[in-house]
């Protein structure tokens, strides 16, 4: 196979629905959603960091899922499209920028040592109190909890939930 060959597209996910395989997953997901929905961080900010996380880990499924969630919540196409270039995009508040910087710091290796240096923490703390910082950390963890399922199981992006996990045997 050479560099010009396209990857064969599957008609199904690699795994069947993980919630059917591990029913406790629903409880964990609901608890994470409840914890991050405590009101300390706006849902829009959580959606933005979840979208950025999906982009960072290169998961089409997560990127499309979280972009769709942001659309449903009324976010503009400009803000959604600009998440990948948030540093120079005019669409984000300083608090949102701090949250996006944190998700990048947590998810990307640092060539300079500490992933979340004091300067970044201090900047974020200018916008978020302790409860909000803990909630922000949980929101980053929430999306990261589902990253392995997205990358390993490869649910089908852009499909209704009942159709995302439709495993087809590999030949």
How would you explain this protein's 3D organization?
This is Carboxymuconolactone decarboxylase-like domain-containing protein. InterPro entries: AhpD-like, CMD-like. Residues 32-104 form the Carboxymuconolactone decarboxylase-like domain. GO terms for molecular function: peroxiredoxin activity. Residues 1-20 are annotated as: Disordered. The protein has a domain at 41-153: AhpD-like (Up-down Bundle). The model is unreliable at 1-6 (pLDDT under 50). Helix 3 (43-56) packs antiparallel against helix 4, helix 3 (43-56) runs parallel beside helix 6 and helix 6 runs antiparallel to helix 7. The relative contact order is 0.20. It is mainly alpha-helical. The protein is 58% helix and 0% strand. The two termini are 17 Å apart. It is globular, with a radius of gyration of 17 Å. The chain is built from 9 helices and no strands.
Average of per-residue pLDDT values: 91
Proper CATH architecture of the domain at 41-153: Up-down Bundle
Q: How large is the share of residues in beta strands?
A: under 5%
CATH class of the domain at 41-153: Mainly Alpha
Got a strand count?
0
Query: So, the CATH homologous superfamily of the domain at 41-153?
Result: AhpD-like
What overall form do the CA principal axes indicate?
A: globular
Regions with little confidence, pLDDT below 50 for 5+ residues:
1-6
Share of residues in helices: 55-70%
Taking the sheet with the most strands, its summary is:
none
SSE order, one letter for each helix or strand: HHHHHHHHH
| Class based on secondary structure composition and strand pairing | mainly alpha
CATH topology of the domain at 41-153: AhpD-like
Number of helices: 9
> How far apart lie the N and C ends?
17 Å
Mind telling me the C-alpha Rg?
A: 17 Å
Domain Carboxymuconolactone decarboxylase-like: 32-104
Region (Disordered): 1-20
GO molecular function, one term: peroxiredoxin activity
Protein name: Carboxymuconolactone decarboxylase-like domain-containing protein
């Amino acid at each position: 196979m050479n560099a010009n060959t396209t990857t064969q597209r599957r008609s199904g996910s690699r795994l069947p629905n993980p919630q059917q395989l591990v029913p406790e997953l629903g409880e964990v997901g609901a608890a994470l959603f409840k914890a991050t929905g405590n009101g300390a961080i706006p849902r829009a900010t959580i959606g933005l960091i979840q979208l950025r996380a999906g982009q960072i880990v290169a998961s089409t499924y997560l990127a499309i899922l979280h972009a769709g969630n942001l659309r449903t919540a009324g976010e503009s196409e400009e803000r959604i499209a600009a998440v990948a270039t948030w540093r120079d995009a005019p669409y984000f508040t300083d608090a949102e920028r701090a949250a996006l910087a944190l998700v990048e710091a947590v998810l990307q290796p640092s060539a300079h040592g500490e992933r979340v240096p004091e300067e970044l923490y201090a900047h974020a703390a200018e916008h978020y109190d302790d409860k909000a910082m803990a909630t922000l950390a949980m929101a980053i963890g929430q999306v990261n909890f589902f990253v392995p399922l997205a990358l390993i199981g490869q649910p089908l992006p852009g499909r209704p939930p009942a159709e995302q996990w439709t495993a087809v045997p590999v030949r």
